[in-house]
């Protein structure tokens, strides 16, 4: 029983991938943009998505926009220019989704596949659902932190810190969202 509880807790904090075909991968930026870019490129190569929408504004650590760095990597990896979209202005997660929704306004499609680091995926999904609508978010795929895997999180201080920080931000910015057990179907 304790193992089931631990697995359920892990799946809430680090939702398992839900890989489904979608028109666009909404790729949330970060300080290490090569990781989300390469993950999204793999999904594109595997045929899960037709286009990659990279989000993320100017990052002083990079001296460039996160979206621009990721798009440049995608181009270097052979993704055609017409399969790459940019949202280079957002300063935080909710803006990533808001500005991406404005960019895609009125565009028909089969929905989004969210791409984010595993501990940030819950908040990215909430942001995308807020700005695109719940039906638009068809699936999601995450990549592990370079510091820990989801399976290791209870014993990793950094993981516990990330989970606590994300949980607080979700409570603060998405108080109107349903509780986790309702918002995040466990697949």
Automatic annotation (TrEMBL):
Occurrences of domain DUF218 (ranges): 23-134
Domain of life: Bacteria
Record Pfam families: DUF218
Protein name according to UniProt: YdcF family protein
